[in-house]
Amino acid sequence: MTRILNIPGWQDSGPNHWQTQWERLDANITRVVQDDWETPELGPWLTRLRAKLTGEPTVLCGHGLGSILAVHAAAGSPSVVGALLVAPSDVEGKGRAKAFKSFAPIPRGKLPFPAIVIASRNDEYCSMPRAKELSEAWGARLVDVGKEGHLNAEPGLGTWPEGRALLRSLCARAPFTLDSRLALDTSVAGESALSLLLLMNEARYPWFLLVPKRAAASELFDLSGDDQRALALESTLLCEAMATVFRADKMNVGALGNIVRQLHVHHVVRTLGDPAWPGPVWSHSPRVPRDGAAKKAIIDRLFTHAGISARFERKA
After folding, report:
1. pTM of the model
2. Inter-residue contact 74 to 51 (CB < 8 Å)
3. Distance from the Cα of residue 134 to its chain's centroid
4. What are the angstrom distances between the C-alpha of 313 and each of 82, 261, 268, 282, 307?
5. Strands (DSSP E) along 213-309, which ranges?
6. Looking at 171, 205, 223, which one is the last position of a domain?
């Protein structure tokens, strides 16, 4: 799943700032932490940001001076696939704090990735005409949110759902990648035109997941109508196949996503007397891993079902 780097501006983002709230909502959003928030210097700040660019597809989410830092980082950062630039600070404007001086001049070249600038009509750090000028220079879409000040904690934006929707629109344009936490916990068993079919590394239950290969999808409604119908068909097929092959007394199906935001649908075979029966398997007890032979055996069994072998290309 596309990584998101929060880049706060001068004096950091406090506990009520939307950037902080987003990090609480989504573990895939992490912060670039600077050594000195009070007297920013472009060189050290840029070094700290680039150290966080590990090669994974990444969307930058800047606020204020952090938005200008994101633009400075654009050159030579091929892993950056998008940028949300909120209330960029006009570090070239008259009367600007001396602390901003090293960030000038503002780069004016077209950004090599999709970008959205979100600007307010009464932002003391950047006028709307200047925000429009910068957006045009960067080749970015400009979103005018009216009079919301500097778009920090003061307007009471809370978790700012409108901003998150714009962030998702950028992530949706990035290549699909499987969330690293799902990759650690599972093995790829198969693949369809829509989904990855994953086997959970848990020996006590036949447990498979479907992950639609759609970047930024975290909810069912993030999928197109055709994809929603295809996922419903695949989920129904997988349930029927697992219930038949593994002689389920009950199938448990769920898409939670409170920790791993990437849309994934669990399918778990339950039997009378299994370790968690009749409660949920989630957080019941420490996981018991499967060895390689056991993984192959359970995938072999699932693919004896004609519908599964017809729908999914086997990968393991």
Report:
1. 0.81
2. no
3. 26
4. 32, 25, 21, 28, 11
5. 250-254, 265-270
6. 171
